Amino acid sequence: MLDIEISRRNLLVGGACLMATSLLPNVALASQTAPARMLKFYNPNTGERVSAYYWEKGRYLADGLDEFNWLFRDYRADDAKMAIDHRLFDQLFELQRRLGNQREIHVICGYRSAQTNAHLRNKSRGVAKKSLHMQGQAVDINIPGVPLSMLRKGAVSLKAGGVGYYPRSNFVHIDTGPRRQW
Description:
By secondary structure, the protein is an alpha+beta fold. The protein has a single domain (37-181), classed as Muramoyl-pentapeptide Carboxypeptidase, domain 2, CATH 3.30.1380.10. 38% of the residues lie in helices and 22% in strands. It has 5 helices and 8 strands; from the N terminus they run H-E-E-E-H-H-E-H-E-H-E-E-E. The longest helix has 26 residues, at 8-33. The radius of gyration is 22 Å and the shape is globular. The termini are far apart. Residues 16-30 have low confidence and may be disordered. Residues 1-30 form the signal peptide.
């Protein structure tokens, strides 16, 4: 016969392990059954629209991301070399969820080539020399029907990346860089 000493501590640790293992399949299942993520964009500079699912069953969808990347391209140089950081789309999705709004997001500026950034920088003091737009990590947006101040407040509430407020230019800047606001 085995002589097993069961202490309160061993019993609690064993119970916690058993409970944790029983939850694992549910966590995996939850990411598989989470609602698909869809965004709608309009680029007023090109007149193009995209409405696509970009995430489903725990993974990003290449077709949707490709459509977004094209719409976010540097339209001035017709340059779509940079893939947009998928976390930016997650931030926009969450922003719309928090605002309770599924309207089309107007993309004022997405990706910028180094040449376009330098050109814009020469014309305006508000353009950063090492802008995250050049890394595919930033977008300037507005949503018709949503006050810009509310859009800014919603973006700040995400507590993710940078948020810039440009009321005279009618857009809010959102990026996936360090958390900050201006």
